[in-house]
Specification:
Length: 221
């Protein structure tokens, strides 16, 4: 079997394990165990990084790298399970058809939103590839990475606030929801404005520092 197929299979397994890990993160956040969630998240990232580097140490090969990521992610999942059981929860595996039916039905709007969001952030590069040259697509993609990196901050804020808002909604405390929405809006607006201003003023220097002079056309067109 070609190495690329083996690596793809390992990455698919990693995606499954990562989905399970994200499930535990959601449980921790829903119960306001943010410190525990942060600890297991850091341990998971460290284990993935270390195992991936070990794989590359033995063989600079995509299969070894993907296998290292999978092993590190499995270690992270084990840490989540131990942390979950450590704080008085009984861990068991089962399948509730009625529960999954409700989850799938209620998550359809969220899934459609995710597809539209993902498509809207990728269709521009595809259209540019048809209309322009490969070099221009590369310049555009390089700059676009900064936008994708900015999602980390918004996702971090959203991940911290969503469980609090969900709990307040279930308890009918609408004043808390409005308060958190207002705070998050102001925070994202202030931080976003500062970042946009810095990037606008120092775009040339940032591109030269991160990518080199070969990508300077990305801020000159």
């Amino acid at each position: 079997m070609p190495d690329i197929l083996i690596a793809a299979f390992l990455i698919a397994l990693d995606w499954v394990v990562r989905s399970v890990v994200h499930l535990f993160h959601g449980v921790f956040r829903a119960r306001n165990q943010f410190q525990l969630d942060a600890i297991v998240t850091i341990q998971e990232r460290v284990s993935v990084l270390v195992c991936a580097l070990i794989g590359l140490y033995f063989e600079r090969n995509l299969v070894y790298f993907a296998f290292g990521i999978l092993v590190g992610r499995a270690i992270g999942m084990a840490i989540c399970i131990v942390a979950f059981c450590r704080f008085g929860e009984r861990f068991s595996i089962g399948f509730n058809i009625d529960l999954w039916r409700d989850i799938i039905r209620n998550s359809i709007p969220i899934g459609i939103r995710g597809l539209l969001k993902g498509g809207s952030f990728r269709i521009d590069a595809l259209m540019l590839g048809v209309l322009r040259t490969n070099a221009e697509v590369g310049w555009y993609g390089a700059v676009y990475k900064f936008l994708e990196a900015g999602f980390f901050f918004t996702e971090a804020v959203g991940g911290a606030v969503r469980p609090v808002i969900a709990k307040a909604y279930s308890q009918g405390e609408k004043n808390i929801i409005s308060d958190y929405f207002g705070r998050c809006y102001k925070l994202l607006l202030i931080v976003g404005s500062i970042i946009v201003g810095i990037v606008f003023v120092y775009a040339d220097q940032i591109i030269a520092l991160v990518y080199g002079s070969e990508y300077m056309n990305s801020v000159r067109h």
